[in-house]
Amino acid sequence: MFDFVRTRLTLWYLCVLALVLVAFSLGVYLLIARNLHNRLDNSLRDSIAAMERLLPYELDEGESFHKSAVSAVEEPYYPNQSVVIFDGQGNQLGAKTSPNEGPARLPVAPSEILDHIRFDIVPSSASGSGNGRRVVSRRLTIPKYQATYLLVASQSLDALASELALLRKIFALAIPLALALAGVGGWLLARKSLAPVVAMSERARRISGENVEDRLPVTNPRDELGRLAITFNEMLERLTESFCQQRQFMTDASHELRTPLHVIRTSVEVTLEKLNRDEREYREALEITNTQVRRLSRIVEDMFLLARADAGRRPLERIDFYLDELLGETARAAHVLAASREVNIVADLTPDSAWRGDEGLMRQMMLNLLDNAIKFTPAGGRVELNLARRTSGYEITVSDTGVGIPRAAQDHVFDRFFRANVARSQSQNTNGSGAGLGLSIARWIAEAHEGRLELRHSDPHGSIFVVNLPV
Questions:
Q1: Of 115, 136, 163, which marks where a domain is finished?
Q2: Is the pLDDT of residue 428 over 80?
Q3: How many percent of the chain have pLDDT more than 90?
Q4: pLDDT tens profile 368-387
Q5: Looking at residue 396, which CATH number applies to its domain?
Q6: Which ranges of 136-223 would DSSP assign to H, the alpha helix?
Q7: How many structural domains compose the chain?
Q8: How big is the CA angle at 183 (ends 177 and 186), to the nearest 5 degrees?
Q9: Residue 389 lies in a domain
Q10: What's the pLDDT at 189?
Q11: Rounded to an integer, what distance in angstroms lies between the CA atom of residue 285 and that of residue 186?
């Protein structure tokens, strides 16, 4: 039961509410109890004050001490109170007691009663009462008659105790009832509030590779749960895109691998159909097989490199070297391919261009770019390689005078297995795989070095690729 969030939220809510209600009830109870006691004490004090005024008045009327005391306690109305007047030695002169009250008596010894008001609580004389009585006493001296009196007023605490007991019963019933109602309401509210989470959980449970395009429901995009659902849907969008790329990658890879394998198998089958073949026919079959095997190896190596890059398991081996030297060596290596296609390579490199990076990957990136430029440049064309120093780093430009890239294909030139001209990209005279992976690998290498590779311009007169590398 405690595994559910709504249950834990409800319990936390009830605990906090219980603490608040108990603290509030305790504060109210103490405040009311204090007010009731103060009201009782003030009433008894008023009774003492009334006797203080009446007793000298009765004496002035010429009454005796005893009759004056009786008149002082009989005339005023003291509801639920007992009032008694004693002489200085503690002898009772006049008394008026409340019902069920026994004989009046002093709360303490006569000598302990002084001129200021004294408050005491004494056991009640009535049987069965366990709350006692509140007693107020004071010594009154009348110099005119050279007389001393002890004034006592008391009242039972039963009524006050009953009121407080009733208040405790009210709190004892009200607090659990309030907690029960709040618990039910809090549980329903938590259930309603978390209903979107349950809906998202159910929908997420049904999402798999077959229906990865499904999305979580968004009840309110402005609250926390709505933003959570939107964030989760954005993650699903990225996963869907990744799954689609993987599926497309597998499909394209299968297609690219199937073509050379089909060529190899056909060549072998045709060669083996005839038993007696001369050496020239066998050599031609082996040359075809060798060419396709090299192409297969290149495709597999490129796919393996991209797979390691996607998985983050291809760390960079950074060393210090000069970019101009590396680009010069790359241009000389590509010159062999360019010469076979009657394409001229021109290099303009800024000398002493020190840099730190993965020399092997940078060499592969430049070979891919030069191979791509040479492949689409007709005979008699030119490929230019430039290295310039900029404020933020180095800029490498590879431009050609080739046929260019169609406008519809320019946004996809860096996609894996994408080829704007399939027939020419499979040329057997190139160093690339002919599978449309060269530019994808080149862009990854640039980004792995915190740089950028982009197609700056392309039209029927040629294309320009630019690599920006930070210092």
A1: 163
A2: no
A3: 25
A4: 899 889 988 999 899 999 99
A5: 3.30.565.10
A6: 158-193, 195-206
A7: 2
A8: 135
A9: yes
A10: 85
A11: 81
Tokens of 17: 């509410």
Of 97, 45, 88, 98, nearest to 65 by C-alpha is 88
CB contact set of 144 (below 8 Å; sequence gap of 6+): 56, 59
- How much is the pLDDT for 426? 41
35: CATH: 3.30.450
Average pLDDT, the chain: 83
Using DSSP, state whether 115 is helix, strand or coil. coil
C-alpha pair distances (Å), 446 with each of 325, 343, 383, 392: 18, 26, 20, 15
- Residue 106: DSSP 8-state: -
Flag whether 245 is in a domain: no
pLDDT at 94: 82
pTM over 0.70: no
Q: CA 109: distance to chain centroid?
A: 73
* Mean pLDDT score, 315-340: 89
Task: Indicate if the pLDDT at residue 201 is higher than 60.
Answer: yes
pLDDT band at 351 (very low <50, low <70, confident <90, very high): very high
Angle value at C-alpha 426, between 268 and 463, nearest 5 degrees? 175
Residue 382 falls within a domain, yes or no? yes
Answer whether residue 206 is part of any domain.
no
Token digits for 319? 């060393």
Of 128, 163, 198, which residue constitutes the final position of a domain?
163
Closest to 438 measured CA to CA, from 342, 374, 355: 374
Q: What does each C-alpha distance from 334 to 328, 345, 349 come to in angstroms? A: 10, 8, 16
Distance, in Å, from the CA atom of 397 to the CA atom of 468, rounded to the nearest integer, reads 9
Range of the domain at 338: 316-470
Phi and psi dihedrals of 128, rounded to 5? 85, -5
